[in-house]
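Feature request disguised as a bug report, sorry. It would help if multi-protein outputs had a clear separator. Right now it looks like this:
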Amino acid sequence: MLNAQPVAAVGLPLRAAPKYSSDAYAYSTHGGFAKTADSTPRADNVHRLPSALRSASVNAADRSAVANTLLITDAACDLPAEWLAANKVAVLPIKIHVDDWHLIDLHDEYDTLEFFRKDIATKGMRAQSEPLSPLETRDFVQSNLRKEINAVIEVAIASSRSKIYMNSLAAAQNLMLMHGRVRRNMGIHEPFKMWVVDSETVFAGQGVLVAEAVRQLQAGMSAAKLAQHLDTLRHHVHTLVVPKDLFYLYSRAKIKGDNSVGWLTYNVGKMLDIKAVVHAYAGKTEPCMKVRGYDDAVKRVMDIAITKVREGLITPIVTVSYAGNIDDVRESASFVALESVCMRRGVTLHLSTMSMTGGLNVGAGALSIAFACQSLDV
């Protein structure tokens, strides 16, 4: 029978309750992370380059923290759904509305492909995406929390393109109050922390950051170090987008008040079959080159990626997404060439269906490719 006497009765000193460190959340800004509450000593070398972009040395404490970290992204992130599920990445849904027609983007590749095939031509032009509210976001995060999780890192689509980032900040603040109190009542004295990272990019670019987060967590990097790593890395992620239907891109941009593609660009492109390649970087999207013919434009961005892989990437990841059947991309000569170079250089290449949210903005048949490098002249 177990001895039910208090510890002091058997001659052992009573231990004082562990001191509780305040809960904290942090959000990424252009200058780095800004903290609303500081529960850990501030590191002096957070943003040194290039050392900030190298995998940090791993100790036992870091390894034990890996299993306690929840990684979240949103449905706009372009990575294979199966891969995200296998790596336990929670995906925040996005609402889509067209007149009285409503659906939820759950990052389901089959539903997304069906949408590209059947609905985007008739409904995509008028469709509007809507992020979950702060309360809905908080409930989503909470539904994915387990007792052992004490850190959450969310990688959000660029704040310049969506309110997901801002709503997640509000959700994080609310979650700190509620979940932190619950943990303390359960006798859990380790602080609960949440980092919200503004990826400053879109489509495949967001995928680079999430894939890197998984890679570093599996290598044993702690949540705190990973948050700072992503905060630095996001300034080096370049995303190139090749829209197939320039009229669709122009019309969508006009509806959203986006001047990335002007009327003159559209008309000249239509007459000469010129495709405007869009460059997403540091929270901005703008045309960076014009190429005659869609296939040649795709080959051009693939060749750029091949060059950067050969030169050496900051992180060994390249992501490609396509608003259509990805077998069409997989069988193309330019992708096969990229795949071959990546294999020889030890670079992981992810190919996925573009998110429904992404496809709404750039149209069916659009392709995006992303990687992290020191600089890109396009």
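(second protein starts here, but nothing in the output says so)
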Amino acid sequence: MQLVGKKYLIILDDVSNFHETLESGSSYDEEMGELIRSRLPKGCGGTVIVTSRDEEVGKQMVGEENLHKLVPLSDKVIWLIFKDSVQKDGTELPTGLETLKYDIVNKCGGLPLATKMLGEIMNKNLRASVNTQQGMQQPTC
């Protein structure tokens, strides 16, 4: 790796059971663990960002002193992200969806990516439903 003297940004997203993977004996896992622990140059402006839902995984990878705990987003912000994802291409929110607001926000747990994905799934399902209904309404020969 030619990172000595260069700035770098490495992001390991949603890491889980990293310590178990390192202990499994797989040569790829051992090489990756060794790279992360000791081979990346230090003091050159490089950064490694690790995200995990498991605090213990984070502690083992970067040490407790380097942990930054993120606070889940508020229900209001989560609802806005969800609605924006559903309506991204002009798709109308179904009537009555507001009554499910609490359940939707609760399921997302303050996580923006989960919220966006749920909204995009609903958008896709709504568009498919509209297309199906339009196909049924067209006269046939």
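Even a blank line would do. Unrelated, but nice: Residues 112-137 form the longest helix (26 residues).
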